Amino acid sequence: MIRKIKPRYDDDTVLSILRRNKIYIFADCGGRGTCGRCRVRITDPASCDVPSDAERALLSENEIAGGIRLACMARVTGPAEVEILPDSLIPEESGHGDIAARKIEPLLQSEVIAVDYGTTMISGAVVDLNKGVISEASVINHQKAYGADVISRIRAANDGCGEELRLISQDDLEDLAVRLGRDPEGARYIISGNTVMGHLISGFSLKGLGEYPYTPVDISLRRDGNLTFLPGISAFVGADTVSGICACSLDKAGAPWLYVDIGTNGEMVLGAGSDVLAASAPAGPAFEGSGISCGMPDIYGAVTGVVMTGRKAVVSCEGGASPKGVCGSGVIDLMAELVRNRIIDENGTLADEFAEDGFPVQGDIVLTQRDIREIQKAKAAIRAGIETLIDESGIERNSIKKLVIAGSFGSGIDMEKAAYIGLIPEDILKAAGTAGNASLTGATLYALDTGFGNRLKSFCDRAEVLELSCIPEFPARYISYMGV
Ligand code: FES
Q1: Which class would CATH give 2-88?
Q2: Residues near ligand 1 (Cβ within 6 A)
Q3: CATH architecture of 111-229
Q4: CA-CA distance, 209 to 200, in Å (whole number)?
Q5: Mutate-to-test residue for ligand 1 from 14, 24, 25, 32, highest number of ligand atoms within 8 A of CB
Q6: Could you tell me which residues are beta bridge partners of residue 89?
Q7: Pairing of strands 132-140, 121-128
Q8: pLDDT per residue over 218-237, tens digit each?
Q9: pLDDT in tens, 189-204
């Protein structure tokens, strides 16, 4: 795709101009020049400033000589022509649900759209109050053009892009409705999402979420026009976690339980009787198939599982398609298999033969050393969070009767492999099970069950928040779980 662009401001970058023109490219680091995902080709190098040190660190000399730049670093000095590389472009239409095959109909009076509004993917269901779920679909969250995780989105909003992010959320919700076969005009949505997504959709200020003590504007059960937002617990333990817990009926469970939502922000909640302790750890999006060079969400063409035969990976793929990238469940499998086959050592370092070019998974899909470090960081954050939560609660770990893993990491993760790489504790593996997209189930139940809203609210009232950054042991635990 080639586009002609013009700067409007002195410091306009290619990335900011593309965003203004609704051309969304991956920008996992939020435009800080550290991820290398926003590669574009500038036809006439003189139309931009000279490559920065950050670009020289991430691009090869050949790439720079060929006009490749990082869109977030390249400042445009005059009219320019930019080629968007296919790997950099966030797909316009990607996700589950076949638009072409569907007739778009108005939403019936008895219908609502239940939504799990994730940082990476947005999943939805048309729910008929009399008949239940009619259809399901998902779309990519195009806010990814402003960063892969909630921290980058907060930064972008606080840097003045809040309205752009709000408009993207509106477009994505409309796209979701169409993909569900419903006219977005007059559609009613029930939103279960993390606190940052709720704030961005509502157009709230994110100032309070950007600095300690991380104060949200409003996380209550609330209605805003055609949108109903489910309640959350805190700035970083959101409605998606609360609705997932209640959807799994953990709010009614007597015996100790642990719920872990593996997303860009790992959210974990430990319950024992009426006591509920909640925490969150910034994991990054690796287990959502984002933020790594070979990653992709759990959509058509995603590698969901991997086994090794010798030093060769054999992959299984969503929809039986040819593999295009690796989603969360595939990431866990891949790491476990590479460690088991000693292609990655206990420090997470690739064997010498793959050190330079990365491990070839299949076709063009390559797991690089940098990808492995991102996965290690995500794993360490979640596991250190789990251990700190258990420790601070005072609960005996062997009394935990249920460990529920939720998230949009793929069609179910292999728990043994998750434990093998240290993502979840081996000694409570027997209690472990997956809940899939429990957040969407929660939003659906809210539509169908008149008492569900009260359960959500009373659960939020019971929860106490543990701020992991204030626990002295957390950093040491994080480092100790970096190994695999
Ligand atoms: S390097 Fe440009 S967005 Fe990350």
Answers
A1: alpha beta
A2: 27-29, 31, 33-38, 70, 72
A3: 2-Layer Sandwich (3.30)
A4: 11
A5: 32
A6: 25
A7: antiparallel
A8: 999 999 999 999 999 999 99
A9: 999 999 999 999 999 9
Distance between Cα 126 and ligand 1 center (Å): 36
Token pair listed for 299: 């959509």
- Closest by CA to 330, choosing from 290, 357, 363, is 290
Structure tokens at 365: 């899909």
Report field, pTM of the whole predicted structure over 0.85: yes
DSSP 90-152: PPSS-SSS-TTTPPPBPPPTTEEEEEEE-SSEEEEEEEETTTEEEEEEEEE-GGGGG-SSHHH
Q: Whose CA is nearest to atom 1 of ligand 1?
A: 33
Per-residue buried b or exposed e for 399-427, using 16+ beta carbons within 10 Å of the residue's own CB: ebebbbbbbbbbbebebebbbbbbbbbee
- What residue spans define the domains of the chain? 2-88, 111-229
pLDDT of residue 91: 77
Report the phi/psi class of residue 463: left, alpha or beta, with left for phi > 0 and alpha for psi in -120 to 50. Answer: beta
* Ligand 1, atom nearest to 32 Cα: 4
